[in-house]
Each structure stands twice: as C-alpha cells, then as structure tokens.
User: Fold these one by one.
Assistant:
Number 1:
Amino acid sequence: MTNEQKRQVVIPGEVIVSGDDFLPGDGTEKTEKGIIALKFGLAEEINKLVKVIPLSGVYNPRRGNVVIGKVENINFNGWIIDIDAPENAFLSVAEVPRYVNKDGLDEVMDLGDMVVAKIWNINKRGIDLSLKSRGLGKINEGIIMKINPNKVPRIIGKEGSMIKMVKDETRCNITVGQNGFVWIIGDNIEDELFAKKAILFVAEKSYIPGLTEEVEKWFAKEKGGEKSAN
Amino acid sequence: MKNGLQRRKEEKKVPTKTFKRTDGRKLDEMRPISAKVGVIPSADGSAMWKQGDTTAIAAVHGPKKMHPQHQQDPSTGQLRCNYNLMSFSVSDRARPGKNRRSQEIDKIIEWAINPVLKIKGFPNLVVDVTIQITQADAGTRCAGINAAALALAHAGIPMKDLVSSIALGKLDKTLVVDVNKEEEDYEEGEGSTDIPITMTSDGKMTQMQIDGKITPAQLKEIMQMAKKACNEIYEVQKKALKDGIGGGEE
Amino acid sequence: MALEEARSKMDKFQTTSNVTGKRIRQYLEKNKRFDGRKLDEFRNIEVEVGVSKKAEGSARVRIGKTEVIVGVKLGLGTPYSDSPNKGNLMTTVELTPLSSPRFEAGPPKFRAIEIGRVIDRGIRESKVINFEGLCIKEGEKVWTIFVDIYSMNDDGNLMDAAGIGAVVALKNAKMPKYDEKTGTIVYGELTDKKLPLKKDIPISITAHKIGNSIIVDPTQEEEDLSETRVTIGFSDGIISSMQKGESTSITPEEMGEVFEIIEKSWKDVFKKIEKFVK
C-alpha cells in the first residue's frame, strides 16, 4: 500500500502490509507474514496504522451511540429494546422525564413501538439506554427502514454532509441510528418514501469513490423526470 | 443398480493403467466451479458454491444469543452448522429433516472451520451457518464448507483465514482430484476410496476423512494433490468475495 | 430476574414496527403501497426450471426477493385400499433457517405444515393430476409423487411462491424409468414421458386484509400487518380449494372483493409463468 489513502478490498487472512513499520488496528492482526485482515472489508492505512473497515456484520454496540430500537418486551421497571445487536438493551422507566404508573408502562411505550435512545452503559449484565439528551424518545410518526450498520458512516457522510443533502433534497427529517435503523419523517408519505429510496441508493453505492457526486447526479435524475413515488 | 461408468467399463474393458475419467477430466483437474456471495438477501452473510453438478448454498445468521440457553458458553462464541441435503438433490428421495449422517457432517464442518474463526470475543453467542445442498453429485460436505467459509467472511465474522475443501479419491489404483458421484460409486479393481480434505490457505489441514482402502504412501501423494487443489479453490473464493463488494442492500 | 427472562426470550424477529405499520395502513387507504404497486399487483416473478438435476422436476421461483426451490421426486408405493388404482401425492414444506432469522432448525412448525397442506389441496382438488395414470399394478403398486418445497429467502408471500413452484416443477417433471423385471426405479434415467397431468394450471393465490384494504403478494413488512388471509386454489375461472387463515373475521362483501382480486391476479401470474408450464 502506498502512502496515499488508497483503500483495497481484503479478505480474512490476506496480508495487508508486511514489515515492522506498521501498527495493527481494528479488524487486523500482526503475524509473522505481516499485518493480516481479520475481516472482509476495505483496508486503510493512515500514519502507519492499518485497519479494516468492515463491509458487513451485525451491529456492535458502543457507549455513546445513538440507536433506534423496538420495544420487544416490558417488565415492571422498564422496556426491553431490540437494537438489532446480539444483545437486547434495557430502557429504565426512570429515563422517562415524567411520572409513570408502574402498571402503565405500555401506555408510554408499547410492544412494537420504536424509540431513539443513547447507549449510556455497557457491562456484563447488559446494555442500558438513556433518553436524557435532545432528540431522544419515542417515535410517533414516520417510517423506519433498516440498512447495514457498517454503512452508517457513509449515509451520514463527512460532518453530516451526506445526510444533510438527502434531508434537503427530500424535505424530510432523518435520524440515523448507529445500529442501522433509520427514521424518516416528512410532510407526506411520498416524501418519506423518496427519502427511503435515496438512502437505499447511498447504501448500495457506499463503497464507490466520488459518492457525493453520484448521489447529486441521482437526485438530479430522479427529480428531473416525473418523480416516482417509490 | 449399475451406473454409466461401470457399463462403459464393461463395454470397453479399459485397462486400469490408462484410467480415463468418464467426464474426460485430467486426474488432477477439478470440475468447473462457480461461486457467488450475497445470494440470500435476508441473511447476515451468504454464498453459493457450485462444483460440477454439486451445489451448496450457505447462509449465516449472527452472532446472536445462543438458544437453547443451557448451551451458552460464557468463555467463547460458538459456531453452529446445520447441513441439509434437499430431499430431491439425490436420486432416491431423502426424507426431509436431520438424520445421523447430516448430524455428523454438521460437526465435521464445524471442526473444519473453527480453527480459523476468531469468535472468542462473543461470549454466550452463536454464529449459525445453514447449508442447503440443492444438487448432490458427490463432494457435498466440501462444497458446503467452501460455501460456509465464504458466507462467514461475507457476514463480517472475524477469521484469520479462509478454509478450502476438496474431495479426493482413489479409483482402483489411480489417485484423482474432485470425484463425482459416478466415480464415488466405482467398483472395479480396488474400488473407490473417498477422501475429503479441508485446508487453510497456508496448507494446514482442518478436516480429513477416509472411506476406503489406501496406502500411507498414496495418502502422502493425496495430500500434495489436495494442497494444489485447495490453492485453486482459495483463489476462486477470494475472487467471489472481492466481486461481492457492494449491492445486497435490504 | 424478569429482565433476564425477557432477555433470554429474545428472538430477532424483524416484525414491522408500529410506526411504519401505521404509515403502510394510511397509504393503503389511498390505494397505494410503499413499493409503488397497486393493491392487486404482484411483484416481479422469476422462474427457473431444472435447478436440481437429480429431481424428476424442479423449479426456482422468485417473487421479488422471496425465493423458493421446489423439487418433484417419484417413488413407488402401495395404493390406499379405497383407491386401489390411484397413485399418491405428498407435499412437504421446509421453512429453512437459511431463509429467515424467524425460522428455526428442527421439525416443521405449524406454518410450514399449513403451507404444505394448502398447496397440496390446491393441486389435488384441481384434479390436475390424473391419479389413475400413476397406477402400476392395481391394488399393489403405484407411483407416489413427492413435491418438496424449500424456502430460500423470505420477503413475504412464501405461500404463493410455494404454490407456483409446485405447479411449475410438476409440469416440468419427467417420469423415471421403471424396470418391470425387478419392479424398481432406474434412477438417473428419465423417460420422455411427462407426469399424467391435465392441462389446467392450478395456482394458489393469497389475499390479505389489512385495515379496510385487500392486497395480494405482500412484502414481509406488509405480511406482518395482515389481519386475515384467504388462499384460493384457482384454475381458469374455477375455484377448487380455499383456506382462510388467522383470527380476524371477514364480511361476505369483502370475500366477494377477494374473489375478484384473486381472479385478476391468477391471470397476471399465469401470464408471467405461462411459458414454464406449457
């Protein structure tokens, strides 16, 4: 690999670089052959640090992540939330900023309801969610879609540039959970479905260089012709 | 039940020295292979492996919580394989569902793949691999392993290598690579010996079985042949994964 | 403890969320669907025949992203005593864990059993199979047709995919060779003879009621919202079987609407698969 930030597709076990000049980062391991990939993905080297950006895989929860999840069960002091990770998460009733009757948890959030929440703690006992930040809480309107969580950084783009473009072009408000759930809300369903289609396009093309221009072109084309609803 | 090979043998009386494979392949030549990842959109990772008329499709779900709970292991993640012959993939209809053979093969495949998996960091979790054989013409466990290795990589499961698998054979006295069903049923002379072998890309063996007679000297040769064949299979797997980038969005 | 219990109950069913469900219903009220289809419109149907060489007949059917593989095998059996000159039909469905995180390994669960039963009846009651033509020796030996259906990817409407796959595989199957002397099947050698089938094309079509709307061919997102469903085995204007599933009632008027939608859909689907069932 050269000094320029060239990304190459690597498969598990493939030697990314050899020699002692490099440090193994995420998704890699140092062996006698050199630094090898542990995952299928894009290898990247920045300042001698080699890492693999995975292209697939289930969501790996991290503290501080904003996620979107679904109420899967309710118990006496909170909600079990499916965040599409290997483990479910727990949202305590104490996170709701008002009085909740112990028998009325389902009136606040029922099975199948969606919620935007932040992971505030991960330990052996599980993942705990919080609602104590702006923009967190139950989702009442709009549509939910799911993308591969590994593509979330591309959907958001550098400093949020990509998602801003999609929001502006579709006139929708969009919240992207780090776990790959996306919440879209607009003035009408057509706008929401258009936004969904745009996000699927970005996700599908996420690995290509010059993604921003591609997406701009896509919008020009989609809006140029008669705008189709799906 | 006579097969075509036997009949042709009887007709032509081909001496064993000039053993010719009925499909015209060279002794070390594999059947045509095609492979593709991302064939099952709803899975976390998936792959198809077709070798001659044997086709395996593998899908990965997970890592996810191990069920039943008593099988959870707090010290490591686990691989769980589920191999199935489709009822119509063989001549005499196989009853759908598991049998002793498929249960053994599940384990064989797990053992073949486990050495390259890095799932210790997934305590209490399981990575499920389901393999369906849609067409069987010998070498189904090998095709299953090749598809499973691809599907696991495609699912983003950490691995330090792929594994590549091939069925070798001894037909009478001749050693061959990639036996088909007709050859597997060969009964002339010393008959047929079936030897599936699985290797990592640097030539370590993770799986080997033998059904039939063979000498240690011949086996040494078989392992050399396996190494070469597995290298070729590895290249096909590598290409399938690299071609599989992009697409497959839900 | 309750938490632990709830956590252990976790299964990764990607059921449609309430909020999306609400939108889908609102849109259906306007006679629109998320993917732009009309309420009575099927997704794209792709058919491939001869996908498994050892089967006497086989088919891969894709409806959108939903996929099934169906194989037909023939075996030898004894006739039932009340029909000594008739062959047998056996239909099984395997909802493989490969095809959806919702399906578990193990013996078939109710849903698989139901699809198998419904598709079996759809074929049987259409009388497309001439069971007398499957008789080898009256009272002693007959052919058994096995139709085995495997789900490969579930994105809704596995039922109709299974039914289409079954009829295509049957129509493309060839009789195996039978050795009169030994009384056994010579596998690997098919004759040129097709199965004894009439020219009907029985297709099972399922209508779903969501709110006040009746739709066909739901995606998984839509199927999760289905309140009741009606599967009708249909062939060229004649109904020969039906199953109403799930615990919501339906009015005779709505049932009338179902018949109309299914008749139209049968024509659509027939057009899409016609060249594979000649």
Note: The beta strands of chain B are 33-37, 45-51, 54-65, 78-85, 125-135, 163-171, 174-177, 192-200, 205-208.
Number 2:
Amino acid sequence: MRDVVTGAPGILDVSGLSIARNGKALLDVPHLCLDGPGPTLILGPNGAGKSLLLRCLHGLIQPDRGRVCQNGAVLNARHKARQAMVFQSPVLLRRSVAANLDFVLKRRSMPRAERKHRIESLLDEGGLGGKARQPARSLSGGEAQRLAILRALALDPETLFLDEPTSALDPSATQMIERMILRASERGVRIVMVTHDIGQARRLASDIVMMQAGRVVEHGKAMQVLEAPESDESRRYLAGGLVT
Amino acid sequence: MIPDFIRASIVALGLTAGASLAEEPFIIVQSTTSTQNSGLLDYILPGFEAETGIDVRVVAVGTGQAIRNAINGDGDVLLVHSKSAEEQFVADGWGVERFDVMYNDFVLVGPKSDPAEVKGDTDIIAALAAVASSKAPFVSRGDDSGTHKAEMRYWQVTDVDPTVASGTWYREAGAGMGASLNIASGMGAYILTDRATWLSFGNRGDLEILVEGDPRMFNQYGVILVNPEKHSKVRATSGQRFIDWLIGADGQAAIESYELDGQQMFFPNAR
Amino acid sequence: MQSFASEFNQAISLILNGDAELWAIVLLSLRVSVFAVLISAVIGMPVGAALAVARFPGRRALIILMNALMGLPPVVVGLLVYLMLSRSGPLGVLELLYTPTAMIIAQVVLVTPIMAALTRQVVEMLAEEYSEQLRSLGVSRLASVPVLLWDARLALVTALLAGFGRAIAEVGAVIIVGGNINHVTRVMTTTIALETSKGNLAMALALGVILIGLAVAVNAMVSALTLRAEREGLRHA
C-alpha cells in the first residue's frame, strides 16, 4: 500500500456509463471518479467488466450511454493524445527494439538527435540497454512487456492505462514491471491498472475499484478495501471464494 | 494527346518492341506454323532483311486465326495456304491483292503397322475411306487451319462424315500441326500433314509417310498485303516491298534453295 | 519417341554450352516478368491494404471478386488484352500488340489480383492484431496502411515471389499478345510450346529445366525468408 507522493493530474470522471449486448448489461457504472493521487487498481473476477471500463476510459470503446470526462471536460482528442495504454499481451511492431520507441517519438515530431537521446535513456530505464538493435519480437515475455511500457511512457502521458500487464509473467519479471509502474506514478503519471492479483493490488494500489458483473461494487482507499471491505462481493473475492 | 504521352513513357522505359521503332523499320507477317516450323522463314528472311533493313516479325498461327488477326489489322502481310479463304479475304476488301508464292504438298502419315493397308496408295480419297472403314485412329487438326480445311475437302469427296465418329476413332486435336503430330505419334494414329512440317518434326516415333503424290494434295501458299484503307497503321510500303521480294527472282530463288535432309521443301510458283 | 534419358542429356548439354539464343530468351522472360510483378505490386499492394483496413458497403463483394480474379484463366486474359491492343481495338493506336510491353500488360492483369488478395489477407491479419494498439497511439486507419505494409514486409515479399512464379510460368496469355516472335517476344514458355510443336523435345526440355530451376530458387528464397521471419518473430500468430 502506497502513501500519497504527489498530486496526479487529470481527474477522470465517469457518469451514467453503460454497455449492453443482447439485452445483457456488460457495463453499468452510474458514477465513478478517479482522483486519487497514486495508482488506481481495478480488481475483480474474470468477466467483471474491468477491461471494458479501462477501454472506455481510454476512448477505445464508445459506451452505449454515458460519458467520460477529464478535469470536467468530455474526453477529447487532446486528452487522448496524453493517454497511453499497455495491453495484456504486448503488441510490438515487427521492427527493432529501438524502432518501436522511435515510432512513437517520430509521431511526436521530435528531432532526430533528441529522439536518439531519449531512446537511450528509455532503454536504460527499462533495463533493455544492450538490446536496441534486436528484433522486438525476439524479446522474452518480460522484456517485451517492459518495452511496451517504455513505448507508452515515450508519449509522456498524463494517464497510463495497463490491462493485466503481468498476468503472463513470472515473479521476477512482474517485480521489474511493478517497479517501472511505481516510478512512473512517482513522476506524476496517473496510473489506472486492471489486475486480478490481490497481492499486486496490495503492493501497488493507492485506491481500489472492485468490480463484479459489470458494476462497481466498491471504490475506496486501498487499505480500507483490502482490510475492511464493505460489500459482500469484495469480501468473498478477497477471501478467494467464488463470486457468483 | 494522351496516347502519345503514354507511348513516350513506354519508350522511355525501353520496353516497347521497338526500342527499334524509329530507326529500324519492321513489318508483322501473319503466317502459318508450317512456314515457321519447317525453318523456311528462318532460312529466307535474313536475305531480305540484309537487303532492305526491314525486320520481318512472324506470328505463326493456323491459317484461320492468321486471317482473323489480319482482318483486325494486326499484321501487315498475310502468308497462308488456303486459296479460297484468301480470295474471300481479298474480295471482302481486307486485302489488296493475292499472289501465288509457292506450294508444297500434304502427305498422309500413319503407323508402320498400317492397319488400314493404305501404304503406297496415290489416291488420298480412297486412302481416307480405307482408314474410316478400318476405324483405325485418325488425328485431325480440328482448328480451321489450312491443313484442316484441306482434310475436310478430301472427306467431303468420300462418303464418310468423320465428325460423327468424333471422339471414337476420329480425334479432333484443336491444335497446331506439331502438337497434333505429337498426339498422333503418341497414339500411333493416321494424320494428314504438310511435308515440310513432317520432315522437320523431331518426334516421329512409329509414324512414316504412307500416301503421297496425289495432285489433289498440292498445297498452294499465297501472300496478301493487308489493305491500308481498312487499317491506316498498316505498314504498306515495307509490306509491299516484302511481297515484291518474295514473288520476285531473289525470293523465289531463296525458297527453291531451301532443303531439309537433302529434300527441297517448297516449290516457288509465283508468276 | 526417343528415350527420356537421351532427350534429357541433350537438354543439359544445351544449357551447359550456354547457347546464346537460349540465354537471350531466358533474359527476356525475366525482364518481362520482373517488370510485370513490380507494376502489379505497386498497384495491388496498396489496393489490398486499403481493402484490409477500410470499411465500406460492398467491401465483402469486392474481396470475393478479387479472390475470384486470382484464378483468371491466362488464355482469357490474353484474349481480352489482345482485343484491347489490336489495331481494331480501343488501344490500337498505341501499337503495342506483339511487343514485350503487351506481354507485361497481360501479366500485370494476371498478377495484380494475386498481389492484392495476398496483401489483403496478410494486412488484415496484422491489422486485427495492431488495431487497438495503433488506435491507442492515435494512428488513424489511413495512417495505419504504411505501418501495416512495412510490418508485413516479409509476407509481402513472399507474395511478390508467388506473383513472379505465376508470371514467369504463364504461356496462354503471352503467346496471344506477344505472338511468339523470334528475338522480339519469344520467352521461355512460348519457346517451350513452339519447340514441343516441332517435336524438338530437347530444347523444350532445356528451357523446362531452367524454368524448374527458377521455381526452385524462388521457393528456396521464400523458405529462407520464412525461416528468418520465424527467428525474428516477424511471423503472424
């Protein structure tokens, strides 16, 4: 559990959000405000709608109803340009490690010399210093996800969304990625991350959104949700029981 | 004009036939496989080309297709062997005038075993009737070529309509002379062929000449300039030069001197 | 018929003796088909990629049509191009019939649908994988086309080689529009057809051996590329 380090920008505000398919509600979030300073972790069983909520927040999916606001304004292209997302399995371009970062920096119209410098410092940060020229697709799972996070950070995002970034990784790879996420949070990047790993939530979260069957069943300080959950669903999930 | 622009860019790519278009004139001769496969044209054309600097490009197809291509204007000179079709071509205005050039002859070849017992015959009509009654396999060009037209003329004189037996002993190849000979060689069948193609054919297998010398088997070649009034792009001057050469002393002598296996192939008879 | 062995020996000696005429024919074949394939790629690849990422009514039908065109019979293509280029045809004024350019045009018509269809398949698969990530990075559909084409480059080279294989081995179309004119439009396949019709099987076989050799070389390149792609993780899942 983390204490407040610095105030994160970009308060995310959700109201009346709903998505339904074939008469079944996949997502139904009347209100949710992400304004905590540290990482927000979205927790819940499979099919709870965690990834769907994340994609709505990032603007990848248009909800049937409702809206997402950032600092009070409806999410727009300028906001989205300052958001980045890391997916469960990293989608790396079929190019070298350095070229994957360069792709993003070029889109930001950064001059060549500055790009080169930035790539070096990013690779150092992710522990990929010696692998700049290697084909990105030949990296190990942990390295690939680190590169995906570096590429997201190369956008200098205000908000970084992560969708179960460590679900396929071993403990040491997971640890390296968690360290990168915490460093980004400390620098003032708002972190919104989906996980179903309670231990990970314990290690990273400043606040926790607990989801179940498309609804937010609890949202509060990490300590409070983990130690004294208010809803039955949260209690059962944290106890490792079946949530139906 | 757009076509000019397109042509200019194609020339710039160095792809057109004629990188030689401007400096080296050429004509296209629509002719038959027999003149090409026999090697006659390869033998006589260098003489004309050296004398005039005109490159002769030969498209060798069946007589029927050659005439159709010429009607479309896709050739400057027609050199084929089906006199009635050629005269029709001129009568319809597609050609300027028809000239006799040369003749060779058809021969009936067949398997050495000769199941129809026609070997030594000099009467092609009787021989074909014998083949029909023996039901021994017979391969026809079946492609509206000059040779095919000649064959059909012979069948007409017999009482037999071979096409009712098509698919049984009568096989219509729908192919060129060489391809049809390959088929006949493969199945040991009788086939009517021009002598030149036969002599230059390398895959005779078990076949040999069985019937020859019937005057009805003479095979007359004619040459015609495609009418420039029908197709303005016809290279009439160069084409006429080629025709004049072919039916003149030099061309006729060249045709006469062409031999294969010590045999004269074509007999010049331009008047 | 002479034995296969003796024909084959003659064929090999024709190749080994480096018959100048034979090599001129091989070179013309390569020139025509390489040009045709490059032009087909320039037309077909962007079309295929656009079909892969664009969404519009009639897209399905267009894809079905394109896949059907992959199997166009060469003789039909030859006939159509002949009718266009004939002096009595709409493009007769260009005087292109019986030239290498006419053969290139026919091969472009044959190969472009292959290029477009293979490109669409490859790019569509890749687009599916990249879609969310590229949108997350703010790359529009249109802007994603060059990204996808570049990242699919190895598969596209394979498509290029497949198109080349079809072009160089094709006889039905080029014999109609090229006319098989000696020293002008006589390529490997039309020479094989001609020499076979003359019963000159050794020469036909020699060219056949060279064609097969080219096919083997092209396939070896495809397989080498695929191997490299696997090593570098460039293949699609």
Note: Chain C touches chain B at residues 1-2, 35, 82, 86-89, 91-101, 104, 179-182, 184-185, 194, 196-201 (CB under 8 Å).
